[in-house]
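Example 3.2
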Amino acid sequence: QVQLVESGGGWVQAGGSLRLSCAASGRSFSNYAMGWFRQAPGKEREFVATIRWSDGSTAYADSVKGRFTISRDNAEKTVYLQLNSLKVEDTAVYHCAAGPAYYSFPNYATPNKYTYWGQGTQVTISS
């Protein structure tokens, strides 16, 4: 059974940093793309970043480029999202997602192109 478990969320002031983790289990993810999405109250789920597990290729939403960094640890089967220079508008529930790379990575910004989802971790930024 595939599981994606996010952690690392919390409350920080604007300008601060957080590191989110997504622990993946239940299958091999070597041919998968892993994505981070976020959803604020009353808004649609929004793409944040993605990484292709096999070669580490990445893509980011324009709104987070230069501030957020996605990475993976093969041995730990964990994907990280480093959040720096946080803004109030980054407040949301952050979800980890996984899907076959041939399918998900070319369509990385589309939530329904991912197969598995975690429950999410809350990130709250105060001014």
